[in-house]
Write a structure and sequence with these properties.
Helices cover about 40% and strands about 5% of the residues. It has about 180 residues and is mainly alpha-helical. The strands form two sheets. Strands 1-2 form a two-stranded parallel ribbon. It has a two-stranded parallel sheet with strand order 3-4. α3 links the parallel β1 and β2. The N and C termini lie far apart (about 45 Å). The mean pLDDT is about 80. Keywords: ATP-binding, Helicase, Hydrolase, Nucleotide-binding.
Length: about 180
């Protein structure tokens, strides 16, 4: 429901989802969401073995699904035991619709569920943006910012709203090359 671009096709999309689920069952297949759900259900019925984990650091978190983070949150008592870093512009996972906004909402609800008496307590979830890019020059970053701006205008709820990246090095004006003749 959060993606307005599909508002006229929701029934068709849900029909495709049901066909996909039926096909998986028929073939005995599963996907990464099924795997995470199975682990989550197992964790509810029995203790997960192994050493106690005090902290977790997750890089490239944009390549995971929200359900994966829901499972990870079950293992911890404090939000400040979890550190996640990622860049939504570098998402490589096929079909991913990751947004930090969704992750924040999940973690906020987790905090409320974990400690319902302290919902007036200051939120322990911290977010900060690293918007200075030391690897690309300003021309490349300006081009990328214009693409991100188009995505934001055309699909406003599909990506997080962030400040544009700034470069510290000038460079040549980028151009778009369309093949050989």
């Amino acid at each position: 429901k959060k993606y307005p671009v599909f508002c006229y096709n929701r029934d068709e999309i849900y029909d495709l989802f049901e066909r996909y689920e039926k096909m998986k069952r028929w073939n005995g297949d599963y996907d990464s969401a099924d795997r995470t759900l199975a682990i989550s259900h197992a964790a509810e019925t029995r203790m997960l073995g192994g050493p106690h984990i005090h902290e977790v650091y997750i890089d490239e978190c944009q390549d995971n699904q929200i359900i994966d983070f829901a499972l990870i949150l079950k293992l911890f008592n404090h939000a400040d035991s979890i550190f996640m870093a990622g860049d939504i512009a570098q998402c490589i996972a096929r079909g991913s619709s990751f947004r930090f906004q969704d992750l924040r909402a999940l973690m906020h609800q987790w905090e409320l569920d974990r400690n319902p008496m302290n919902h007036n307590q200051q939120n322990t979830i911290k977010k900060f943006e690293l918007n200075v890019n030391y690897r690309s020059h300003k021309g490349i970053l300006n081009l990328a910012a214009s693409v991100i701006e188009l995505l934001s205008d055309l699909f406003p709820d599909s990506i997080d709203k962030l400040l544009p990246e700034r470069g510290v090095v000038d460079g040549p004006q980028p151009f778009i090359f369309k093949g050989f003749r």
